[in-house]
Design brief:
Number of strands: 6
Strand content: 35-45%
Shape: globular
Number of helices: 2
Largest sheet: 6 strands, antiparallel
CATH topology: Methionyl-tRNA Fmet Formyltransferase, Chain A, domain 2
CATH superfamily: Formyl transferase, C-terminal domain
Distance between the termini: 17 Å
CATH architecture: Roll
Order of helices and strands: HEEEEEEH
Radius of gyration: 12 Å
């Protein structure tokens, strides 16, 4: 729940972000989800599909990242970003 609140509260400036391979990845939009997903550590990518990037948050919740803005690039859907191969299931964001 805290991740979802930060993404909504910090939209625009200063922005909610994480790091992937040393580069800043701003999270533009997403939503908290619950469901049956594999057990994972908080921050671990557990699923990629056309909806976006599913990241484990703990307490049996997952955050679906829908739009991102990679450092030095324009805003894009998380799915489009994942097609670039920089993020895979098992990748740890943080």
């Amino acid at each position: 729940m805290a991740v979802d609140r930060k993404v909504r509260a910090f939209y625009g400036w200063p922005g909610a972000f994480t790091y992937l391979n040393g580069l800043r990845l701003e999270i533009i939009s997403g939503q908290l989800t619950q469901g049956l997903m594999p057990a994972a550590r908080p921050g671990e990518v557990v699923q990629l599909d056309k909806s976006g990037i599913y990241v484990c948050c703990g307490q049996k919740t997952f955050y679906l990242i829908e739009k991102v803005k990679p450092e030095g690039r324009k805003e894009m859907s998380a799915y489009s970003f994942s097609l670039g191969g920089k993020v895979r299931v098992g990748t740890i964001l943080g």
